[in-house]
Amino acid sequence: MKVTDEVTLRFLAAPTDIGYSGNVDGGRVLTWIDKASYAVATAWSGRRCVTAYVGHVKFGRPVRSGELVEVTARMIHTGRSSMHILVTVDSSDPRVGEPVRATSCLVIFVAIDENGHSVEVPTWTPSTAEDIANQESAKARIGLRQDIEAAMASQRYTDAGTAPKALLRFMAAPTDVNWGGNVHGGNVMQWIDEAAHLLATTYTGTTRNVAVYTGGIRFYQPLHIGEVVEVEARLLHTGRTSMHIAVHVRSADPRTMEFRLTTHCLVLFVALDESGKAIECPKWIPSSDEDVALDRHAIDLVKLRAAVGKFAVGGAE
Fold it and tell me: Are 172 and 227 in contact (CB under 8 A)?
């Protein structure tokens, strides 16, 4: 039997997928991405898999309620235990439309055994010119991703910072569980989107805020059902219309309340007017040394991301 290296999920975007902007919110799209890539990772490896990294999620156009959505995940590279999966999200009016690209990204899964240790996966070999080009793009991103991760991990986030913040705190519920018994990576990404949206809303004074980019989502360790979860969003930098927001996800056993970092990423939000166009956001001026350092860090990440090239599949980035 041929091992599956590509999966496409097709479904209609439901009214319950809609966010405050009137379209499907970025967090819901991220859960779709996680599910499709998980399907490929488990089919290819024959193992339980965990999300390790999601990179360069650029939201090109909104997905609307009632549209036919196609989420395609395809293997483009394997390491010893890692699987690099390219995911594209297209949507269309089911009555007339040709699918149009909404977003794309690279997701990395790691196969694990019953004890949570990484295990080897079958080697994926490209068979077409397009496959070869995508694999080369995936390999080229490894060093860039390491640079981004190192830059993000080196920053200090303390009470010395004066930037606007938003904090969500709740218990990880049994309904958040994945097939391995921990919290689904897609759920974590939706929480990240919600915390960033809360901060953008309180900062701009409008609920019509949307994610336009999510990058460097690094999953450090699993988050368990029944743990207390903290999702903290902090403003790092503002452009003319954009808000650069760092989000940290931490969890703790409620009996000890000793929090550990589980996930970290950067999200870009913009505020929209009634016609859906981006509007200028209030300019934030860093004041403390930590504020200044993080503001500079956000600018440096923009420069690093500019080095990311496109994949060969349908112009995916």
Answer: yes
C-beta neighbour count of 107 within 10 angstroms: 26
Spatial neighbors of 100 by CB under 8 A, at least 6 apart, are 61, 90, 91, 92
Does 3.10.20.80 match the CATH number of domain 165-305? no
pLDDT tens for each residue of 100-148: 999 999 999 999 998 889 999 999 999 999 999 999 999 988 888 888 8
Q: Domain 6-122 maps to which CATH number in 3.10.129.10, 3.40.50.2300, 2.20.25.100, 1.10.10.10?
A: 3.10.129.10
β-partners of residue 228 are 171, 252
- Whole-angstrom CA distances from 150 to 153, 172, 215, 315 are 5, 28, 14, 28
Count each helix (H run) and each strand (E run) in the chain, helices first. 4, 11
Cα–Cα distance between 31 and 186 in angstroms, integer? 4
State pTM to two decimals.
0.90
Q: Cβ distance 293 to 156 under 8 Å?
A: yes
Residue with tokens 């269309």: 92
Detail the DSSP E strand segments found in the chain. Answer: 6-12, 48-59, 68-78, 82-92, 100-112, 165-171, 209-219, 228-238, 242-252, 260-272, 278-279
Listed in sequence order, the residues at least 6 apart from 8 whose beta carbon sits closer than 8 Å to its beta carbon are 36, 70, 71, 72, 73
Nearest to 238, CA basis, from 209, 207, 260: 209
Domain assignments of the chain as residue spans, ordered by start: 6-122, 165-305
Residue 10's DSSP bridge partners are: 70
